[in-house]
Known about the structure:
Elements: H1 20-28, H2 35-41, H3 59-80, H4 86-96, H5 99-109, H6 126-144, H7 146-159, H8 162-167, H9 172-182, E1 187-194, E2 203-209, E3 212-219, H10 222-245, H11 252-257, H12 280-286
Antiparallel strand pairs: 1-2, 2-3
Amino acid sequence: MIRLWQRFKRATQSGPDTDISALVSREFGLRVRQRKAYEEALTHSSMLDGDTSGLKSNERLEFLGDVVLDMTMAQYLYRQFPDAQEGELTKRKSRVVNRKNLNLLGKNMGLHHLIRAKMRRDEIHDTMVGNALEALIGAMYLDHGFQKTQRAVLLMLKHYGVDEQVHETQDFKSQLHHWASKRKKALLFQVIKDDERAGDERYVVEAMINGKPYGQGVGRSKKEAEQEAARRAWKTVYERRQSNETPQTGSTEQRKGSDTRPGSKTSRRPSRRPPRKPRSSDSKASS
């Protein structure tokens, strides 16, 4: 299964950027004109603590960039799949526009090196990077308008394999149900967490096979979490099948050498004969 984050080897940067202009040019093919918007896109809300200069965080731009990204992908999918219904289009879009992918995209670009926050660089968590990416798209929209930004975002996403991602049709949940039914195993998706405050990680679901946990998934919706749990469970099933098919180590001769079954040649020990008594002629000769 091709995943968007498996294509991240294609990044071209050789080291952390020291200026946002270099990142925008390399990843999106655009020039930075309204620099103030880009600086705002990189400003985390922690920078506002105690600030009296009127500094703004990137949260408003994040909202704007989220809408631009959604519209960009919606239009792209609408044209790519003219016969697809609303449900299928939504499913395909969610494979690309989700928190995990955005976090990883931002990190791969090196965006975390440019975020301004009142914390150590190693304390900047992945969600902050994904939010900054959305804010950056919002800044590009203000700087270049929708059409240029749309083309630039699609160029970036295609660079990281968006075409393979949206055409992926593998359904691990159905695949796992088929496998379990064929082998008469009980498959159950158990919700172990449902927290409305958790946002993208609201649901945590465990895939149980015959009462044993095989894989856990997290998602904004129950369906998304179940699909991720099924993917992880299928990976577990596949790995166990592979290990069971692995031949035993050791050669035939080595296994024969360790055979201690009754009646086997290697289980017989050489008999110990009592010492031979000296004959009378031997004793005369010695005297």
